[in-house]
Amino acid sequence: MKYSQLFPKTQREAPKEAESINHQLLVRGGFVGQLMSGSWTFLPLGFRVLQKVTQIIREEMNTTGAQEMLMPLLHPKEIWNETGRWDTAREVMYQFKDTRGREFALSFTHEEIVMDEVRKHLRSYKDLPIKIYHFSTKFRNEPRAKSGVLRGREFLMKDLYSVHVDEEDMYRYYWRVKDAYMRAFKRIGFEDIKLTEASGGVFTDKHTHEFQVLAESGEDTIYYCNECDWSQNKEIFDGLVGQDCPECGKGKIWQAHSIEVGNIFPLGTRYSEKMGVFYTDEQGERKIPYFASYGIGPSRVVGTLVEVSHDDKGIVWPKSVAPFDAHLIGLSGNALEVYTKLKEAGVDVLFDDREVSAGEKFADCDLIGIPVRLVVSEKTGDRLEWKLRNSEDKELLTLEQAVNKLL
């Protein structure tokens, strides 16, 4: 991709209202644009990152045997009344009437919609377990729509739902999904992430689990053991910082700020009971299936990555989700030939072909944050200057050597 043709270009200044790092850098880098408070456009550069994040998540969901589909975003009041959440979740939901007076809501989650689909098709234990997921937009009446793409009124969510013959089978899959989530987050590029016990909020009265990324800018507070995997959200924590870990007894409890990027909910029979979902067991008796849900916010993941991976020059994208493999800066006439050869070799490269100063090109390169910078200039001759975004070290490589390192 030639940078001269990319829409839009970088901005020198962050928006005045941008308080969070991800808001400042994603807007300045040309990754996102704000329509209004809590509503964001993922521009071409940002959409590339978002697509890579969603693909990693998709691959890990598929390893659990889950099947992808797509559900509606417009929901009738009647289906939410079946569980009572039309009233109990009123503060979160966008509810309205159409021109004929019929009441609807925009999706803030899809438990009821999945249960409705399951009851149309579920007959016997042979149909279970069911494991289905989708990526879709969610709408939530967020009273504090700030912190860039971390807290929106409209955002992308991956929902996975599973239905099981009993609680044992539900938890067997529940922990399998936990492992898949951890793999996905590690592949995306998070290093300090904690599986944290939490309350269920409007989803369930059981304790659930959140995936919290340690971040100084995080709005959540968690308590965790410095020796084992024990961790709890502030909502349910009942203890003191520095005391012995209640799980292993060896470590000490530490406190940290964090950002939630995913959650898993063991919902039990609450939804299936209220919505009349049954199956027939091996003895021909009607039984109530167990239900669980699992969420990751890909757009929130993008913002969190920026919060934990940046410096004073700009974003530092992990290789796995960077918008391009390399950022090529041309300072001499043969740069176009190098760009063409890189593309032919299969390298996904952003080529800054503009007639601007070298300083402006380098500054934009650092701001955009692609992991590898390649420079073609009179000084490099028939070679390329190779530099990693998170390092000051440079080396001269042949085109073939650079391609081999990139692919």
UniProtKB/TrEMBL annotation:
Chain ranges of the Aminoacyl-transfer RNA synthetases class-II family profile domain: 46-318
Domain of life: Bacteria
GO biological process, one term: prolyl-tRNA aminoacylation
Catalytic activity as recorded in UniProt: tRNA(Pro) + L-proline + ATP = L-prolyl-tRNA(Pro) + AMP + diphosphate
UniProt keyword list: Aminoacyl-tRNA synthetase, ATP-binding, Ligase, Nucleotide-binding, Protein biosynthesis
Nucleotide-binding is among the record's keywords: yes
Keyword check for Chloroplast: no
GO molecular function: ATP binding; proline-tRNA ligase activity
Family annotation (PROSITE patterns): AA_TRNA_LIGASE_II
Gene3D superfamilies linked to this entry: Anticodon-binding domain, Bira Bifunctional Protein, Domain 2
Gene Ontology terms: cellular component: cytosol
InterPro entries tied to this protein: aa-tRNA-synt_IIb (IPR002314), aa-tRNA-synth_II (IPR006195), aa-tRNA-synth_II/BPL/LPL (IPR045864), Anticodon-bd (IPR004154), Anticodon-bd_dom_sf (IPR036621), Pro-tRNA-ligase_IIa (IPR002316), Pro-tRNA_synthetase (IPR050062), ProRS_anticodon_short (IPR044140)
EC numbers for this chain: 6.1.1.15
Name of the molecule in the record: Proline--tRNA ligase
Lineage: Bacteria, Candidatus Blackburniibacteriota
